[in-house]
Amino acid sequence: MRKLQIKMSMSFDGFVAGSNGENDWIFKTGDAESKAWALGQCSEAGLIIMGRKSFEAMAPYWPTSTDAFAPLMNEIPKAVFTQNGFKGIDQGDNPSPAVASWANARVFDGDLTEGIRELKAEDGKPIVAIGGAGFVRSLIATGLVDEYYLAIHPVVLGAGLPIFDGLAKSLFLKLVDVKVFPGGTTVHVYHPA
Questions:
Q1: For helices 112-121 and 133-142, what crossing angle results, to 10°?
Q2: Whole-structure pTM over 0.90, yes or no?
Q3: DSSP string spanning 56-84?
Q4: How far apart are the first and last CA of the chain?
Q5: Which ranges of 50-175 does DSSP label H, i.e. alpha helix?
Q6: pLDDT per residue over 112-153, tens digit each?
Q7: The CATH number of 4-160 is which of 3.30.1780.10, 3.40.430.10, 3.30.70.20, 3.30.420.40?
């Protein structure tokens, strides 16, 4: 049985993106040490999951990116969850392995809880959820998350997209680790209490 991990960057005031989805603040407050740690964490994923909007934003970017995360983002299998249908992505005539990895993502368009239970029942390395805010909020509401990796960045946005609002019941967590990085970002790792 696989673990489900949420890995999100958050502002000091609890937003994972600005009101219009802005996330440039993540890169302005990171440092080489925190990026190296995040790369190590990413390499441990057996499956990356996200909502449709995030998938459609990332799929055209990563196959041609030169960012240090690109090889991992293009190699690790992916799954996309949608409630509004998914048209897939165009592979072109001769798709690269990177493009094919995005085009061949598993698509779940039914009940989120059922889809997560199906993935968790499989053997393999952890399932890592990376976004977006609405999708992660829905994941939290399922009660199936095993670990939360919350990177708290030293920036106050004042408004934005939260992931912990609107829960039907309180969520109690146990802090199991904290990493502090030179640029001021801290990663808090929690398990459900």
A1: 70
A2: yes
A3: HHHTTTGGG--STTHHHHHHS-EEEE-SS
A4: 20
A5: 52-58, 70-75, 97-103, 112-121, 133-142
A6: 999 999 999 999 999 999 988 999 999 999 999 999 999 999
A7: 3.40.430.10
